[in-house]
Amino acid sequence: MSALPPHVESIHPALWRGAQLARAHGRTVDTGYAALSAELPGGGWPLGALVELLVQQPGIGEMRLLKPALAELSALPVVLLQPPHIPNSLAFSYLGLPVDRLIRLRAPKTADALWCAERVLQAKSCGALILWQQHIRTEALRRLHLAAQASETLLVLMRPLASAQDASPATLRLAVRPANDGLVVDVIKRRGPTRMETLPITLQPSPISPTSIMG
């Protein structure tokens, strides 16, 4: 029986040692925050995977956290599905997202919203899809994750902070809370070692009301 190679993780891209970050399976987009990117496999938000941001409440800075990535991906439309507030064109221009690159979708029921999300991902014509949901079943999360894997879209699911205790197939889960100069981020799940320390993120001040930006 042959001996294992000295670097076991070299056998397959899906393997990594418990003390190291996994290698990214596909493309990533830089978060724009060096401290956060350093904690993520591939050095950024994963494309073609389910990412969860678990927020204490809407409008605490979660959209400004996504600002650099969304601006980079805005060559293609950015879809906002079930946003908690009406998007403000001036606010999104500040984020580097022209209003003609934004698509706002609303659905009367959760099932309809999830159907819309799957159709957007299957179309492969959008740079990012941000979906807000209060309650979502595990099987629905799996469907979203599978649909995302067939695309190169940045899929971000905004959920309440209390959802951190729920099981999820998401590749990356971050808990986000407000702080004096920005946010504090807890890494709930990633492909890599557990991070026990809270990560402070300084956000660029916004000249626009946080709720009108939706974060």
From TrEMBL:
InterPro entries: ImuA_translesion (IPR047610), P-loop_NTPase (IPR027417), UCP037290 (IPR017166). It comes from the Bacteria. NCBIfam families: ImuA_translesion. This is Translesion DNA synthesis-associated protein ImuA. It comes from Paraburkholderia ultramafica.
